[in-house]
């Protein structure tokens, strides 16, 4: 099996603007901020040489689904593996015993995504992501 390409890591923050200011000395001024109104999220993305660092802030409006999927705890939340085809990867992972959360796959901040049930060993959420450049019709 070839090494997994980590697409991004997701970090839940209470104040997106403050978190961006705090991380800019580490990751630079090139940050992309997105408003995902349908998910109730504000997202900031720092692109490092080998991974995207994604900061997520709940907006308090229409964020019930996002809170259900990712939870309330601040800090490191999920690791996302890049896949070429979400549907194919989802089928393989299901057959290996991983259970996707209800409502997935769906469009996410980076492309078509699927979250799995929280890992009981690490406490992390695992996500697969088919980046927009590769995404097929939903």
Question: Overview of this structure, please?
Answer:
With 138 residues, this protein is an alpha+beta fold. The chain is 21% helix and 36% strand. Strands 2-3-4-1-5-8-7-6 form an 8-stranded mixed sheet. 26% of the residues are buried.
Detail the topology: elements first, then pairings:
Layout: E1 6-12, H1 16-27, E2 31-36, E3 41-47, E4 52-58, H2 64-70, E5 75-82, H3 86-95, E6 106-107, E7 111-115, E8 125-131
Parallel strand pairs: 1-4, 5-8
Antiparallel strand pairs: 1-5, 2-3, 3-4, 6-7, 7-8
Can I get a quick summary?
The protein is of the alpha+beta class. It is 21% helix and 36% strand.
The radius of gyration computed from the alpha-carbon positions, rounded to a whole number of angstroms, is 15 Å
Low-confidence regions: none
Largest sheet, described in full?
8 strands, mixed
Strand residue percentage: 35-45%
Would you list the SSEs in sequence order as H and E?
A: EHEEEHEHEEE
Q: Major sheet: order of its strands?
A: 2-3-4-1-5-8-7-6
Could you state the oligomeric state of the chains shown? single chain
Gross morphology is globular
> What would the average pLDDT be, to the nearest integer?
90
Helix content: 10-25%
Instruction: Count up the helices.
Output: 3
End-to-end distance: 28 Å
Tally of extended strands? 8
User: What structural class do helix, strand and pairing data support?
Assistant: alpha+beta
């Amino acid at each position: 099996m070839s090494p997994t390409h980590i697409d991004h890591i997701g970090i839940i923050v209470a104040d997106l603007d403050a978190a961006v200011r705090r991380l800019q000395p580490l990751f630079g001024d090139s940050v992309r901020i997105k408003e995902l109104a349908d998910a109730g999220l504000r997202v900031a993305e720092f692109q490092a040489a080998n991974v995207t660092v994604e900061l997520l802030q709940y907006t308090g409006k229409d964020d019930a689904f996002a809170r259900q999927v990712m939870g309330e705890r601040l800090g490191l939340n999920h690791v996302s593996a890049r896949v070429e085809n979400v549907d194919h990867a989802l089928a393989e992972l299901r057959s290996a015993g991983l259970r996707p959360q209800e409502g997935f796959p769906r469009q996410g901040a980076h492309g078509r995504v699927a979250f799995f049930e929280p890992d009981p060993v690490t406490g992390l959420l695992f996500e697969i992501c088919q980046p927009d450049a590769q995404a097929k019709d939903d």
